[in-house]
Design brief:
With 220 residues, this protein is mostly beta strands. Helices cover 5% and strands 40% of the residues. 36% of the residues are buried.
């Protein structure tokens, strides 16, 4: 049975140039509090830099959270909520939130996005970490903190499932594997969505430099 997705209710109080507190509640589709969800606030990417972390918090038994912000976000910002086995929720912090109005985002259930990672010879890569980097949402760039929370690791067959995002909204992922470093793959199609089916990633070979250093001018 697929894990339930989560919805995000956000009320933003007194967040401006001097900072303040982001307060809200994370709930399941039926309205029950989502305890233990991780909430991340991040500003949008800026001048080529990745999204900057504003703050993060865990929800309590009532699904409530509070994130202290020492300074206002630089430009647009987004709240992300994740919980193991659930589809992540995201909510741009806009004018409605600044005026204390609640925002709600509910996502459907999903079996997750399936991946298989192989090396240049087609052999399965064990222990590779798959990190979501860009998704088909109003805020497309996934903050590093959210990517780490939503990541998945390949098994002995090179397979892994990312459950935090719908398969068709995953436009770009990063793969970190021993001996291959970080490699990025894009899955976007014309129209803005990715294929909904399983995704295969064949890692590129990484060049290695071999040699021996010789010290000059050193005597015994």
């Amino acid at each position: 049975m697929p894990a339930p997705s989560i919805a995000l209710l956000v009320s933003l109080a007194m967040v401006g140039a001097d900072g303040g507190t982001l307060r809200g509640v994370v709930v399941e589709p039926g309205g029950r509090p989502a305890a233990g969800a991780e909430v991340v606030a991040a500003s949008a990417s800026w001048d080529g830099e990745p999204p900057a972390l504003i703050g993060r918090a865990l929800t309590d038994d009532q699904g409530r959270f509070a994130i202290e912000s020492a300074g206002g976000p630089r430009g647009p910002a987004t709240l992300w909520a994740t919980r193991p086995g659930s589809v992540a929720a995201s909510c741009p912090i806009g004018r409605g939130s600044a005026e204390g109005l609640a925002s709600r985002l509910a996502l459907g259930r999903s079996p997750g996005a399936s991946f298989r990672v192989v090396d240049p010879e087609g052999r399965p890569v064990v222990g590779a970490t798959i990190l979501p980097r860009r998704v088909a949402r109003e805020t497309s760039e996934v903050p590093e903190a959210v990517g780490q929370l939503a990541s998945a690791t390949t098994d002995r067959d090179g397979r892994a499932t990312l459950k935090a995002f719908l398969p068709e909204e995953l436009l770009e992922v990063g793969v970190v594997a021993a001996g291959f470093g970080l490699q990025v793959r894009e899955f976007g199609r014309p129209g803005g969505l990715a294929e909904a089916g399983p995704k295969s990633i064949k890692l590129r070979p990484v060049g290695r430099v071999a040699g021996r250093g010789v010290a000059e001018g050193c005597g015994q």
